[in-house]
Design goal:
The protein has 228 residues and is of the alpha+beta class. The protein has three helices and 14 strands. The strands form three sheets. It has an eight-stranded antiparallel β-sheet with strand order 9-5-6-7-11-3-2-13. A three-stranded antiparallel β-sheet has the order 1-14-12, with no helix packed on it. It has a three-stranded antiparallel β-sheet with strand order 4-10-8, with no helix packed on it. α1 runs antiparallel to α2 (41-60). Residues 1-7 have low confidence and may be disordered.
């Protein structure tokens, strides 16, 4: 799927099938439970639980309309995910760069928006998916041991930024939209991760990190860093 603009909707397209199937199953069960002879207090309890479950799913798959509030996007790295900053450190990146990079990691809980946005303007140069474990996504080892997808973007001035979507303890599906060679920009969706998960961004050394540990960030709105 290319990085071209898609029509924005209140619900992320990754949730359409899940929501329709869930609504249909819950509706059938509730109709049966309200048949005379079966109807009772349990019917009302299940109806209440059904509504709560469906509202939680609607919240999980919500797709807020966002646009980075500044026209100055040169060397700016914007958050790719909603969540909390759980790592800011210099690390050896061994999958693609094979050198030292600055890692900035965002952990998403079940109540965060799970759509992911591009952090920079540029061209997609590399995409890969790697099978792995399903450790809790807020743990450091999830970056290298969990199932993950990697997207490397070359900015307009030739610098490379890696975005790594990481599955969590419960997440079992990572969706990555672009293809190699796609032009991408801030404000566009990069993908989606179902359930709790993590997004790592690897930056060149010398980048100025603009967030701090435990800070709450918003995708496509919060500036994570500025490239050197």
């Amino acid at each position: 799927m290319s990085a071209k603009e898609k029509k924005e909707t209140a619900i992320n397209r990754e949730g359409f099938t899940t929501l329709l199937v869930t609504a249909a199953v819950l509706a059938v069960i509730n109709i049966v439970l309200f048949i005379p002879g079966i109807y009772g207090i349990g019917s009302w309890i299940f109806l209440a639980v059904s509504l709560i479950v469906f509202l939680l799913l609607l919240n999980f798959f919500r797709n807020p309309c966002r646009h980075f509030p500044s026209d100055d996007r040169d060397k700016v790295v914007v958050a790719s995910a909603d969540g909390v900053i759980v790592a800011i450190e210099e690390v050896d990146e061994t999958e693609y760069f094979h050198d030292r990079r600055i890692l900035v990691s965002t952990f998403m809980n079940l109540f965060d928006v799970h759509a992911n946005w591009y952090p920079v303007n540029g061209t997609v140069r590399k995409i890969s998916h790697q099978e792995g474990s399903f450790h809790a996504a807020d743990k450091p080892k999830s970056s290298t041991e969990n199932e993950r997808s990697m997207v490397v973007i070359e900015t307009e001035d030739g610098q490379e930024v890696m975005v790594r979507q990481i599955a969590g303890l419960m997440a079992r599906r990572i969706v990555t939209y672009p293809s190699v060679g796609d032009k991408c920009r801030i404000d566009q969706h990069l993908g989606f991760i179902k359930l709790g998960s993590r997004v790592d961004i690897y930056l060149p050394l010398g980048s100025l990190v603009c967030v701090k540990m435990d800070e709450k960030v918003k995708a496509d709105l919060t500036i994570l860093a500025k490239l050197p």
